[in-house]
Amino acid sequence: MTPIFYSNLSKDLSSILNDSDDYNVIIQVGENQNTKEFRAHSVILRARSSYFRGALSSNWITKQNNMIMFNKPNVTPIVFDMILKYIYTGELDLTNQTSEDILRLLIASDELLLEELLVYVQDYLIEEQINWIRQNFVLVLHTVFRLVSCKKLQDYCLESICENPLPFITSRTFLSLDKDILFNLLERDDILIEEIAVWDCLIKWGIEQTPGLGNSNSDKTNWSNENYEALKKTLNQFIPLIRFMGISHTDLFNKVYPYKSIIPDRIFKEIDEFYYKSILPSLPLRTRQIESNIIKLELVNLIIVNWIDKKNSKSPRTGNDPLYKFKLIYRGTRDGINSKSFKNKCNGRVPSLVLIKIRGSNKIFGGYSSIGFNSLGELYNNNLLYYYSSNNFIFSFDNNKDMKNMKLGRVINDSRAIMDYNHHGFNFGWAMCMVNQNLCLNDYGNYEKILSTEKIFNIEEIETFLITNNNLSSFSLD
Asked: What is the extent of the structural domain holding 268?
């Protein structure tokens, strides 16, 4: 075994940095009144950074009295001091550094091609500076979106905003958001907010960004055709990202149609085709995500969510409707398609959705239970237990894009909405139950029928999702 003595190595290199007089590089950093001169060794800088390997090559360097002179006005002394200590010793202490300086360190790490340091600083900001990041989203976003290597922090910021978007989009700083960042945000499907709020914030951002509008001309009743054309030009790339089918008829009339002149005709055609011809929109509705290999997001957003809310399929959503998140907890091809695996993964009394893909067919069956499917443990002596729910339902789709031939069967006998039995994965009052690799559909009068005859199907795939309610309200920047 070869011994490794990193501790003493780091200590010795630190002394070279602090005390040695054989340096051959002078680095001037900072600008104006905030400048400092650092002394270093070109051989160490080249060995530790590919940036310095190129910058200190004979073709680029400037020498005075055989000393290499190097200027970095865009890096502050505090940041460069941290970088130099890292280069020489491999050590970095961020405990007493301000969040702003840590962000500057991230920028400098990217420029100086210090990949290891860049990764570490990103992780540190995400793990230790969460509150500061959320209070300064625009600053952080504008910084990291200029750095290709900061994808992890970019994604973290966008995901954090999507989980709780209201504080961000209602802030004044949102109106100064860079258009490329806004585009990245609006094209996401997981913004947990009603679509009319997304539209409202886009219009406010567009007015602020359009020459001739903004605070001096925000009343659209005074706008000329030129003003509308200018706003249309500003929002041209963003309007197709709005999911208009997720906006209620009332809000479409009151908040969208007043801006009809800036919206492409094809979008209004798509709205009509959805409502009158059951043609799915080109973009799925956002505000709900489901990690499913069985069903399309559109069917969840447009159909199943309305059934959960006891509304007709494709009823327009309103600002008062709850929003839902779907968390995958069981997948048959991953966890095993059998009753025991299902019960182990899906026990507990929590609102849940189960989806089943039938082998040799495009047919999809499923069921929603507001009380879950099973108790927390095995039943004594294989007893049968029934549980009450007035909200449960079962359903079927002809395929994962079916908007016309779906069937809904709501619970009739509330006291037998769910049956718990050791040998069944789930059992919707005998109307639909999982028995290992088989799905059985019967008619015991506990649910409305979704098939005319009793049948047994072989399961190709099965998924279960926990459902949580994120009831977010709309907002105003006024």
From this structure: 166-277
